[in-house]
C-alpha cells in the first residue's frame, strides 16, 4: 500500500544541510499496524507528515496505493484525504465551534455524501464509541479521552483505508490511553484498516504488528512483532 | 455544507461578542455614513429633475461682456420667451416667470406671507406640476386667479374646498383660486407657495408690459422637442439679442434645467461648475468612509487568525479545499455586513431628522423605491466582499502542517499588511482633521473680516402694501419708531442690505472710454443711511433734508477708484443719461457676497424706490421688548400686514451656509472616520498583544515593569500614527490649498491645523492602544508561559 524509496528530508541553512531523514526506504502493506518510535528529534513526526502528504520529501519517491504521490497537486491530495486517509492528532484538533456530531459529520460533508447516509454514519459512530449522549456537546465540554474518541470517530467516519496518528495518547492519562490503543487494535484487526502511529511508549507500540525504530533520521531497526512472537 | 457553515458563523459571532460588536459597530457606522452621504448626493443630484421633460428643458442665461470680464446671470427680458418659442425650430414651448417674492395672502382670519411666482400656463405645462384640484388647462389664464400649493391651501382654507374661493392679495386685490398643486419638492430651484398669472403682474407693475430688451427681470425657460439638437438651438438663442438691439454686445445661452443647481457658476461666460464640486467631495467621502470600515473589518478578522488557524488546518486535513474555506470566510463577512446594515438602517433613520435640520434638506428613505433597495443591497454585498476578501484569502492560506506542529505566528508579512491598512486609515483620518480645521479657520476668518458696517443689532423690516412709496407714512413711521425708544437710528433702503441685484451699466464719467462697460450697484436710500449702518463717510456729506438732493448721489470707495476721480466730491457724472453730482464718498461695505471684491456702488435719494426699513436697535433696551414695540408701531400705521423683522446678522450668517455645511459634514464624518480607525487600531493592538504575549511574559520574568511594557507596546503604534500623519500632511496641504484657492479672501495655511491633527491622532491612538496594552502588561506571566 505504501512504498517509500530513499526518502530524504533536509533543511539547508547557511550552506549546511541538516538532515531530518536519510535514506528511508520501507514498504507498508494494507492491514498492518505500524508504530514509529525513536527519541526526540529522530524524525518520527516528519516521516508521518510525509506519509500524510502534509510535507514533501526533499528527495526520494513515495508511492501510495500504487500511485506516485511524491509531489501531488492540491486537488488530488485533497481527494486522497477525503477517501483514504484519516488523521488523529495528539492535541485532538476538534473544531471548537462544532458540536461532537458536527465534528464527525464534517469530513462527510466534504466528501459530498447525501444527508440520509451522513446521518446514519454519524449515528453509527456515536453508537460505536458510546458517545451518543454527548453528541450535542462542544469539544471544550469533554474530557481529553472523550475528545480523542471523537477525533478518532471523525477520522473513521469517512471510512479511510489508513489512519495516521501522531502520538494519539500523548495528552491522555494511562487508562484512557489504553482504551484508545485497544480501539486502534480492534479497528486494525476487525476492519483491516492500516494504522500508522508515532509513539514514545513501548506499551503502545506493543499493540502494533511492526515497529520502525528511527534514530537521527535513519531506520535503525524494523521489528515485526507478529513474527518475532512466533516461536 | 452551507447550513453548517452558517451555523458555525453564527456561533463564532456569538462566542466572540466583543469582536462582533466592534466589527458590526464599525461596519454599521461606515455603512450609515455612506448611506446618509449618498442620500444627500442623490438629493442634490435630483434637483429639478421632477418634471417629465426635465432633460429637454433649458434655463436661458444672459452673458454680458464688460471690461472686467463677461458677467452671466439667469435674468432675462420678458419679451424673450415668446420670441424664442417662435424663432427656435424644435422649441416645444417657452415660459417667462418672476423670481419668487414673499407677499401677503389673506382669507378671512388667516394670513400668510409666503413666496409666490408670477408665471404663465406654459410654465405649468413645462414643469408639469401635479394638479390635485382644478383644471390644469384653465389655470393662470384669467387675470385675477391664483394656483396654490397643497400646504398653502391647507393653511389658508383648512378643510374647506378652496376652488373658486376668493383670497386677498396684499390686502388689496382679490384673486380666485383656480387650482391646487402638490407641494414643490424641496430640491427644486424654483420654490414657491402659489402661482399667479403673468397678466396680473402686468397690472401690478405696469412697466413690465412696456419693457423691451434692455430690462432683465424674469426667468425664461425653454423646452425643446425630445432629441432636438441643443447646440443649434443654443446658437440661435445667442443671436436673438443682436437681432433686436443694434450693437448689443450681450448674448443668451441655454443652460440645462437639470444642471442649473449644481453647475450654476459662470466665469467669463463659460460654465465652471459650482456646487457639483462639493457633491463630488461628499460622494468620495462616502466611499472612503466605507473603505475605512472595510479595512477595519480586515484588520480585526485577520487579527484573530491564530484562533481561526487551527480550524483551517483541521478542515484542510479532513478534506476541505481552499475554495470552500474562502467561501466560509466570505459567508461570515457577508453575515456581518448584513448585521451591520441592519444596525446602519436604525442609525440612518435616527440621524436623518437631525441632518435634515442641519442641512435644510428633505432627505428620507424611500421604501417603495427599488433603486434604494438596489443601492442598499449592493452596498451590503460590496462591503461584505471587500471586507471579507483579504481575511478569506489570508486565513485560507494556512497549511495544515503549521497547525500540526503547533501554530506559530511567523507572519511578519501579514503584520505589515495590517500595518499598511492602519496607516491608510490614519492618513485618511488625519487629512479629515486638517481639512475640518482649515474649513473652520476660513469660516472664522471670513466672518471676522470687516464688512464695512456694524451688523449687530441692525434689523430690517420690509415696506409692505400702502406703506411702500408713501413718503408721508414712511416719515411718520420713522418718527414714531425713534420716539418709542426701541431704536436709535432709522433709514430706508431700496433692497435688503444682504442681497445683490439692482445693478446697471448706465454710469459714465469723464474719461470713460465708450467701449468700457462697468457694472455699478445702484441703491436708493432715505436720510441717515451711513449713521444707521454705523459706517462713516470718507468725505463729503450724507443726504439731508436741508438740501435738495434729487440730483445728488453718494458713491463708494471702489466707485471712486474705478472712475479714477481725484476729487470725487463735487464731480459731476452721468447716471442713466442724466448728470448727477457726487456729494459724498462712503466706505465700502459688503452686501451680497462676503467672498468677493466689493463692486462700485452709486447711491441716490429717492424714497419711492426704497423697499425696506433699516433700524438700529437701542443697545440699552431689552431686545425682545424693542422688537415688540417696533411691531406695535408698524402695525398701527400699516394694519393688516404682519410685521416680519429680520436681524441683519442672521441673514448675513446664511451666506456661510455652504462653508458651514462643509464644516459640519467634515466634522461629523471625520469624527466617524477617526472612530472607525480607532476600532481598527484596537484590532491591531489585540493582535499584537496576542502575538507578543510570550515575549512580554519573558520580559516580565526578567524584571520589566508594567510601565516598561506599556512603552514597548505603545511605541510601535505611535510610530505608525506618526508615519500616517507624515503621509497625510502633504496630501492635506494640496487639498486644502486647492479648496482655499477658490476664495479671493482666504486664510493663509498655518501650522496649527497640522499640529492639531498630529496631537489629536496621537492622543486618540495612545488611548485606544492602552486599553489593550494595559491588560497585557498586567497579565500574569505564568498564564502565557505554561502553554509553551
UniProtKB/TrEMBL annotation, chain A:
InterPro entries (UniProt xref): AAA+_ATPase, ABC_transporter-like_ATP-bd, ABC_transporter-like_CS, ABC_transpr_LolD-like, MacB-like_ATP-bd, P-loop_NTPase
Record keywords, A-Z: ATP-binding, Lipoprotein, Nucleotide-binding, Transport
Gene Ontology terms for molecular function: ATP binding; ATP hydrolysis activity; transmembrane transporter activity
Gene Ontology, cellular component aspect: membrane protein complex; plasma membrane
SUPFAM superfamilies: P-loop containing nucleoside triphosphate hydrolases (SSF52540)
Residues annotated as domain ABC transporter: 2-231
Domain of life of the source: Bacteria
Transmembrane feature ranges: none
Name of a matching Pfam family: ABC_tran
Gene3D superfamilies: P-loop containing nucleotide triphosphate hydrolases
Family: Belongs to the ABC transporter superfamily. Macrolide exporter (TC 3.A.1.122) family.
Protein name per its UniProtKB record: ABC-type lipoprotein export system, ATPase component
Organism, scientific name: Pedobacter westerhofensis
UniProtKB/TrEMBL annotation, chain B:
GO cellular component, one term: plasma membrane
Bilayer-crossing regions: 21-43, 281-300, 329-352, 372-395, 416-440, 668-689, 717-736, 748-769
Subcellular location, record wording: Cell membrane
All residue ranges annotated as the ABC3 transporter permease C-terminal domain in the record: 284-387, 669-781
Entry membrane topology: Multi-pass membrane protein
Superkingdom as given in the UniProt entry: Bacteria
GO molecular function, one term: transmembrane transporter activity
Keywords: Cell membrane, Membrane, Transmembrane, Transmembrane helix
Major subcellular site: membrane
MacB-like periplasmic core domain ranges (all copies): 20-235, 432-605
This protein's record includes keyword Repressor: no
Pfam families: FtsX (PF02687), MacB_PCD (PF12704)
Alphabetical list of InterPro entries matching this protein: ABC3_permease_C (IPR003838), MacB_PCD (IPR025857), Macrolide_Exporter_MacB (IPR050250)
Keyword Glycoprotein set for record: no
Protein name: FtsX-like permease family protein
Species whose genome carries this gene: Pedobacter westerhofensis
Amino acid at each position: 500500500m505504501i512504498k517509500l524509496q530513499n526518502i530524504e528530508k533536509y533543511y539547508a541553512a547557511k550552506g549546511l544541510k541538516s538532515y531530518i531523514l536519510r535514506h528511508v526506504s520501507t514498504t507498508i502493506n494494507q492491514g498492518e499496524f505500524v508504530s514509529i518510535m525513536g527519541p526526540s528529534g529522530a524524525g518520527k513526526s516528519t516521516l508521518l507528515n510525509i506519509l500524510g502528504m502534509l510535507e514533501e520529501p526533499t528527495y526520494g519517491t513515495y508511492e501510495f496505493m500504487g500511485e506516485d504521490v511524491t509531489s501531488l497537486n492540491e486537488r488530488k491530495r485533497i481527494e486522497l484525504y477525503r477517501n483514504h486517509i484519516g488523521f488523529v492528532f495528539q492535541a485532538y484538533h476538534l473544531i471548537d465551534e462544532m458540536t461532537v456530531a458536527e465534528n464527525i459529520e464534517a469530513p462527510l460533508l466534504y466528501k459530498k455524501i447525501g444527508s440520509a447516509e451522513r446521518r446514519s454514519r454519524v449515528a453509527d459512530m456515536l453508537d460505536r464509541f458510546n458517545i451518543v449522549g454527548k453528541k450535542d456537546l462542544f469539544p471544550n465540554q469533554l474530557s481529553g479521552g472523550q475528545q480523542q474518541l471523537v477525533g478518532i470517530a471523525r477520522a473513521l467516519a469517512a471510512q479511510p483505508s489508513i489512519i495516521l496518528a501522531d502520538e494519539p495518547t500523548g495528552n491522555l492519562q494511562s487508562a484512557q490511553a489504553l482504551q484508545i490503543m485497544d480501539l486502534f487494535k480492534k479497528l486494525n484487526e476487525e476492519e483491516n484498516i492500516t494504522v500508522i502511529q508515532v509513539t514514545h511508549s513501548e506499551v503502545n507500540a506493543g499493540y502494533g504488528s511492526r515497529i520502525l525504530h528511527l534514530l537521527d533520521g535513519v531506520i535503525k531497526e524494523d521489528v515485526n512483532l507478529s513474527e518475532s512472537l512466533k516461536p | 455544507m452551507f447550513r453548517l457553515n452558517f451555523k458555525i458563523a453564527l456561533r463564532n459571532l456569538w462566542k466572540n461578542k466583543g469582536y462582533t460588536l466592534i466589527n458590526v459597530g464599525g461596519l454599521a457606522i461606515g455603512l450609515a455614513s455612506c448611506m446618509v452621504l449618498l442620500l444627500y448626493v442623490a438629493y442634490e443630484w435630483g434637483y429639478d429633475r421632477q418634471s417629465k421633460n426635465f432633460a429637454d428643458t433649458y434655463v436661458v442665461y444672459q452673458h454680458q461682456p464688460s471690461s472686467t470680464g463677461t458677467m452671466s446671470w439667469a435674468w432675462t427680458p420678458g419679451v424673450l420667451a415668446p420670441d424664442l418659442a417662435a424663432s427656435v425650430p424644435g422649441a416645444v414651448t417657452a415660459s417667462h416667470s418672476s423670481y419668487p417674492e414673499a407677499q401677503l395672502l389673506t382669507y378671512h382670519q388667516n394670513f400668510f406671507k409666503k413666496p409666490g411666482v408670477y408665471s404663465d400656463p406654459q410654465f405649468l405645462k413645462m414643469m408639469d406640476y401635479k394638479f390635485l384640484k382644478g383644471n390644469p388647462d384653465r389655470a393662470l389664464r384669467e387675470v385675477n386667479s391664483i394656483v396654490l400649493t397643497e400646504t398653502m391651501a391647507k393653511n389658508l382654507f383648512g378643510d374647506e374646498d378652496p376652488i373658486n374661493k376668493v383670497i386677498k392679495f396684499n390686502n388689496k386685490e382679490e384673486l380666485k383660486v383656480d387650482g391646487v398643486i402638490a407641494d414643490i419638492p424641496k430640491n427644486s430651484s424654483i420654490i414657491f407657495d402659489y402661482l399667479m398669472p403673468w397678466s396680473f403682474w402686468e397690472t401690478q407693475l405696469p412697466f413690465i408690459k412696456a419693457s423691451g430688451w434692455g430690462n432683465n427681470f424674469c426667468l425664461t425657460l425653454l423646452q425643446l422637442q425630445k432629441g432636438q439638437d441643443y447646440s443649434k438651438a443654443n446658437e440661435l438663442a445667442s443671436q436673438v439679442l443682436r437681432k433686436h438691439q443694434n450693437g448689443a454686445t450681450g448674448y443668451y445661452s441655454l443652460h440645462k434645467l437639470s444642471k442649473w443647481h449644481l453647475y450654476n457658476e459662470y466665469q467669463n461666460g463659460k460654465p465652471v461648475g459650482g456646487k457639483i464640486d462639493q457633491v463630488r467631495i461628499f460622494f468620495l467621502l462616502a466611499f472612503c468612509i466605507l473603505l475605512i470600515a472595510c479595512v477595519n473589518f480586515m484588520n480585526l478578522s485577520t487579527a484573530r487568525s491564530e484562533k481561526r488557524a487551527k480550524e483551517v488546518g483541521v478542515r484542510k486535513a479532513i478534506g476541505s479545499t481552499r475554495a470552500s474555506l474562502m467561501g466560509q470566510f466570505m459567508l461570515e463577512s457577508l453575515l456581518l455586513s448584513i448585521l451591520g446594515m441592519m444596525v446602519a438602517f436604525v442609525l440612518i433613520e435616527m440621524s436623518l431628522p437631525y441632518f435634515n435640520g442641519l442641512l435644510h434638506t428633505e432627505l428620507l428613505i424611500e421604501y417603495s423605491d427599488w433603486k434604494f433597495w438596489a443601492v442598499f443591497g449592493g452596498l451590503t454585498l460590496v462591503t461584505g466582499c471587500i471586507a471579507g476578501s483579504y481575511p478569506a484569502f489570508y486565513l485560507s492560506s494556512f497549511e495544515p502542517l503549521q497547525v500540526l506542529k503547533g501554530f506559530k505566528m511567523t507572519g511578519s508579512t501579514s503584520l505589515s499588511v495590517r500595518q499598511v491598512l492602519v496607516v491608510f486609515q490614519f492618513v485618511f483620518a488625519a487629512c479629515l482633521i486638517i481639512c475640518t480645521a482649515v474649513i473652520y479657520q476660513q469660516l472664522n476668518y471670513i466672518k471676522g473680516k470687516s464688512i464695512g458696517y456694524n451688523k449687530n443689532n441692525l434689523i430690517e423690516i420690509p415696506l409692505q402694501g400702502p406703506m411702500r412709496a408713501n413718503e408721508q407714512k414712511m416719515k411718520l413711521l420713522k418718527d414714531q419708531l425713534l420716539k418709542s425708544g426701541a431704536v436709535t437710528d432709522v433709514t430706508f433702503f431700496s433692497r435688503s442690505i444682504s442681497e445683490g441685484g439692482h445693478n446697471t451699466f448706465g454710469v459714465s464719467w469723464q474719461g470713460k472710454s465708450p467701449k468700457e462697460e462697468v457694472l455699478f450697484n445702484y441703491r436708493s436710500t432715505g436720510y441717515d443711511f451711513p449713521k444707521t449702518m454705523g459706517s462713516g463717510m470718507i468725505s463729503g456729506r450724507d443726504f439731508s433734508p436741508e438740501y435738495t438732493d434729487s440730483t445728488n448721489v453718494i458713491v463708494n470707495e471702489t466707485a471712486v477708484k474705478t472712475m479714477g476721480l481725484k476729487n470725487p466730491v463735487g464731480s459731476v457724472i452721468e447716471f442713466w443719461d442724466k448728470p448727477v453730482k457726487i456729494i459724498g464718498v462712503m466706505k465700502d461695505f459688503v452686501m451680497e457676497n462676503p467672498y468677493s471684491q466689493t463692486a462700485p456702488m452709486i447711491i441716490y435719494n429717492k424714497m419711492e424706490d426704497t423697499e425696506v426699513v433699516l433700524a438700529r436697535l437701542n443697545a440699552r433696551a431689552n431686545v425682545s421688548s424693542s422688537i415688540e414695540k417696533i411691531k406695535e408701531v408698524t402695525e398701527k400705521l400699516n394694519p393688516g400686514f404682519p410685521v416680519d423683522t429680520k436681524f441683519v446678522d442672521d441673514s448675513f450668517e446664511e451666506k456661510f451656509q455652504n462653508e458651514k455645511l462643509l464644516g459640519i459634514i467634515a466634522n461629523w464624518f471625520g469624527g466617524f472616520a477617526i472612530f472607525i480607525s480607532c476600532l481598527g487600531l484596537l484590532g491591531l493592538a489585540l493582535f499584537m498583544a496576542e502575538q507578543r504575549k510570550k515575549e512580554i511574559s519573558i520580559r516580565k520574568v526578567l524584571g520589566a515593569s508594567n510601565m516598561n511594557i506599556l512603552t514597548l507596546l505603545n511605541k510601535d503604534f505611535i510610530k505608525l500614527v506618526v508615519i500616517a500623519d507624515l503621509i497625510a500632511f502633504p496630501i492635506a496641504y494640496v487639498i486644502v490649498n486647492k479648496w482655499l484657492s477658490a476664495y479671493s479672501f482666504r486664510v493663509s495655511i498655518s501650522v496649527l491645523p497640522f499640529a492639531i491633527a498630529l496631537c489629536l491622532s496621537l492622543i486618540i491612538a495612545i488611548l485606544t492602544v492602552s486599553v489593550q496594552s494595559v491588560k497585557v502588561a498586567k497579565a500574569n506571566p505564568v498564564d502565557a508561559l505554561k502553554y509553551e
